Q: What sequence folds into this?
């Protein structure tokens, strides 16, 4: 939804992921971009070139943080040192909200660096929500949790993924980063209707949307972020905007990265869908 509590009452437009191959172009050409999304972990350092680049970006652009390693679904407690570093970065960027994934990925302090799906049960939802609440209270900024793509399911699951996402978001009182490409990828891999997903998440909690491309293999679709957004994902995005309204949208392109202009042009296609499908306030 536009300007809701979960994106800190902002009304951002279409953004692009900040990636190393584009640093020089952005700093020299200063293209007009609504906002950049940064991977938090790339800048949780004490100094050096990453923070030097980030500070130059912050002089000219709005930045939103996106994380990949809080692992809300892991059984162990949150990593307090990680949270302290993340909070320092929040104060530096003044990000209006931050996001991380609804997944697990660590055991006994060892990190897989993968975004692994969870069993969709009420007990797991309550455990996950309590960790999100703890992180949100500590960081003092709204958190949006992102649905991940998946290639396997747990026999223990007794609810749909969208019901699980809803249970977690309601119990944690957090926002949702709805990744439309991930919904499409998982729907193809597991055989559900992606429209059921989009139409049954709590629209008033959606603070941001992700778009990306994927790769179709013989038996599965992989969330590869290495090509333009395919037509079925654009169609699902249109329905998402009809349900959620004009929502901050970010294009991810993380492999075989083309020029900045090509990535930005692909991202800006979202404006057409936003203008055609968002219901204007009365």
A:
């Amino acid at each position: 939804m536009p300007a809701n509590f979960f994106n800190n009452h902002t009304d951002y437009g279409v953004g692009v992921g900040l990636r190393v191959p584009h640093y020089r172009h952005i700093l020299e050409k200063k293209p007009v971009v609504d906002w950049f999304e940064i991977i938090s972990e790339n800048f949780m350092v004490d100094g050096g070139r990453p923070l030097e680049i980030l500070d130059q970006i912050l002089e000219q652009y709005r930045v939103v943080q996106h994380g990949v390693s809080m692992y809300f679904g892991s059984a162990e407690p949150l990593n307090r040192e990680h949270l302290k570093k993340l909070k320092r970065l929040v104060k530096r960027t003044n990000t209006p909200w931050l996001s991380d994934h609804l997944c697990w990925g660590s055991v006994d302090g060892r990190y897989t660096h993968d975004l692994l799906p969870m069993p969709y049960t009420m007990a797991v939802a309550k455990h996950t929500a309590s960790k999100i609440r703890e992180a949100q209270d500590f960081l003092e900024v709204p958190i949006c949790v992102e649905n991940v793509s998946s290639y396997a399911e747990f026999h223990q699951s007794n609810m749909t993924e969208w019901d699980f996402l809803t249970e977690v978001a309601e119990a944690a009182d957090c926002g949702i980063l709805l990744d439309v490409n991930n919904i499409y990828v998982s729907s193809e891999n597991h055989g559900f209707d992606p429209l059921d997903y989009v139409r049954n998440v709590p629209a008033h909690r959606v603070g941001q949307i992700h778009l990306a491309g994927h790769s179709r293999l013989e038996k599965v679709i992989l969330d590869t972020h290495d090509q333009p957004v395919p037509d079925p994902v654009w169609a699902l995005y249109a329905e998402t905007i009809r349900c959620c309204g004009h929502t901050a949208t970010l294009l991810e392109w993380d492999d075989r990265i083309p020029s900045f202009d090509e990535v930005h042009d692909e991202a800006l296609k979202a404006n057409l869908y936003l203008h055609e499908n968002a219901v204007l306030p009365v």
The chain is about 40% helix and 15% strand.
